[in-house]
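Box S1 | Example of a co-folding query
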Amino acid sequence: MITEIKLSDLNPEQFISEKVQEIRKVVGDGTAINALSGGVDSSVVTMLGHRALGDRLRTVFIQNGLMREGEAESVEATFKALGVDIEIIDARREFIDALKGITDPEEKREAITQTFYKKVFDRIVRESGAKFLLQGTILTDVDETVAGIKRQHNVFAQLGIDPQEAFGYHILEPLLQLRKDGVRAVGKALGLPEKIFTRIPFPGPALAARIIGEVTEEKLETVRKATSVVEKILSGTGAFQYMAILHADRVTGMHDGKREFGTQIEVRCWDSTDARTATPTKLPFETFEKLASEIITSVPGVVSVTYNIAPKPPSTIEAV
Ligand code: XMP
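Box S1 (continued) | Returned holo structure for xanthosine-5'-monophosphate
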């Protein structure tokens, strides 16, 4: 049973010093490794780990080919400015190959988990000799995995899987008692730039969670472009999270006076405090028009743009 630390009960400075002590105690004079995705959770873990271990923490950014536009470069630059060196590992081919032909949402998540832990990360950890892995799992990830709503890609102990046995290393999860709001407060106290600690959540399976059906390089390119537009236009809304989803269904549209069986992008924009429940943001119609026009002009093949108006539950925040 994990004891939740609510934002109202959280003292970020105290939390940081406790977690730094804990990490030092567990890792001893060994070395640890962590994967940074650039999201709030893994960024906070990276800073905590570096405070605790300095150079004894190796931070890798795994380029899985499922990330947003320019993500690897921008994460590297942000952390360099904070004095933390990030190593970028190119594993694009392995992830794309693992996802080939898979359409079922859980199978897609499983393929990403297996490729991440058993192939790519396993190799990196073995090469590094690190016995400890720092991970940014938060309480919401655990809740939803245990409830069987969705298989989060970073929850093992809660599923009765021993990472030591299965993968050969210990996993430390210093954010396990927090929800997103608490993680942001800790990020701020750690001196992360505002653009990081206020960043909207982004799922572990990355853009693969936003493609319905098989994930291909072409579809990734489409959803990546649409994501950039959506993030640019909705960044000032104060919404909890916003995204573009690429549908598997084709819809009839027209281009240059000719019928075109094109693709459909669904925009989602959520109001939420902790991702457990969420409602669609009441955006002004002008914003919808802007979204439609920019997505249609900058993403080839798109002939339809829709907005999700169903709350969570029964919807979920991501589409896969
Ligand atoms: P859902 O789609 O389950 O999402 O309503 C709830 C929150 O969790 C994020 N999410 C994930 N985060 N690994 C993660 O680290 C995952 O596999 C994953 N799936 C969803 C989602 O973006 C939302 O903020």
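The domain at 211-307 is CATH 3.30.300.10 (GMP Synthetase; Chain A, domain 3). The chain has two domains: 7-197, 211-307.
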